[in-house]
Design a protein that fits this description.
This protein is an alpha+beta fold and about 350 residues long. It contains 6 helices and 18 strands.
Length: about 350
């Protein structure tokens, strides 16, 4: 009897002998009482899945992507660009109005002198057709100078940080896993939607907030080196940095370095690198210059909370540093024989406690 009982299968729900059914879905055995409960549970799960599909079907019938994050980014970019354009237009209007007011005092004096001469000629009845033609010509010249001074021109500042928004659709990747030690990512789009981060570091630096904030944690004699996570070979790319903290004198390097160059001490002095440091220093493939007039770069104007745009233009083989508050743009040509593609941007901190944040590219 005991031998017969022990050979019976047990119900997975009550753990008692007497299992009469094996579920081919889960390969488990149930007794007569719990067979129905198991089927009811499966039925409820089935109903839940059907309800989720119905809700998804209703969502498909709604206007496309009303809550899509990319649409929100496009809206934000549109508002940001409009504000930039309106601000630039208002500044241009004010500058032009101020410029147009400057010659009025001189033109008033010239007009007064000509008028006096005309009146004197009229009183003396001493004028001819030649005088009339000369006075007409003088009046037209004065009117033209007032309305459209020849020295005032409108030009397009192509270095201004307003860029077109272009949608790129990538093929899905089979490997979507993330890693804390990710290698640099290659990007070939002129308007990459990948968000830059601090990735590779050397010496006295801490990365915080998921790689968006870099802090110098050494002494005054120490350098802290950081490279980005993206590799650039084609197109034009913008990364916005905010100076969270900067001791004076300003000693932060922004530039680019070939990914073939090692991240090592004095990397900014390497033939593979180019960029801008403190003390008005401009580095070009190992050469250093402090010629402010030649490069238009004055580092002591950069302060805490300033925003700097670093632009890597692979197509033109040049990099730009745009100081938003000062409206200063500096440009360096990069020799791709000395700094072969792909490029990465390079940031170096020198003063203890200095920190730099990467702002969202949205």
């Amino acid at each position: 009897m005991s031998e017969s009982t022990s050979s019976k299968n047990q119900c997975v729900t009550c753990n008692k002998s007497g299992g009469i059914m094996i579920c081919y879905g889960c390969q488990q055995t149930f007794c007569g009482k719990h067979v129905d409960e198991h089927r009811q549970k499966l039925g409820l799960e089935f109903d839940g899945i059907m309800q989720e599909y119905d809700l998804f079907k209703q969502e498909l019938q709604q206007p496309s992507a009303t809550k899509n994050s990319l649409l929100k980014k496009i809206d934000k970019w549109e508002k940001y660009s409009i504000i930039k354009i309106q601000t630039a237009a208002e500044t241009a209007r004010k500058n032009l109005q101020k410029f147009l007011e400057q010659p009025k005092e001189r033109l008033t004096k010239v007009c007064h002198d000509v008028t006096q001469n005309i009146r004197s000629s009229r009183e003396a009845d001493d004028f001819s057709e030649h005088d009339l033609d000369r006075w007409k010509k003088q009046l037209k010249e004065l009117q033209l100078e007032l309305e459209s001074p020849s020295s005032a021109k409108l030009i397009q500042d192509k270095s201004a940080p307003i860029y077109p928004m272009i949608l790129r659709i990538d093929e899905p990747s089979n490997n979507q896993s993330a890693s804390s030690n990710k290698p640099p990512l290659t990007t070939n789009s002129s308007t990459s939607d990948l968000q830059e981060r601090f990735l590779q570091t050397l010496d006295f630096v801490n990365l915080e907030e998921g790689g968006y904030l870099a802090k110098h944690v050494g002494s005054r004699k120490d350098f802290a080196y950081i490279r980005g996570q993206l590799l650039y070979s084609k197109g034009c790319y913008l990364t916005r940095f905010k100076i969270e903290r900067s001791q004076q004198p300003y000693r932060i390097f922004f530039g680019c370095i070939s990914s073939q160059g090692l991240l090592k001490e004095n990397a900014f002095r390497s033939p593979h690198a180019a960029g801008w440091f403190g003390s008005n220093q401009v580095y070009e493939h190992g050469r250093c210059s402090t010629n402010c007039q030649k490069y238009g770069y004055v580092s002591n104007k950069i302060k805490t909370n300033d925003v700097l745009n670093l632009i890597l233009d692979c197509d033109k083989k040049e990099i730009k540093l745009v100081h938003e508050r000062e409206k200063m743009t500096c440009t360096l040509s990069v020799d791709d024989n000395l700094a072969p593609f792909p490029w990465q941007w390079l940031v170096v901190l020198r003063n203890p406690g200095d920190s730099v944040r990467i702002l969202s590219n949205s």
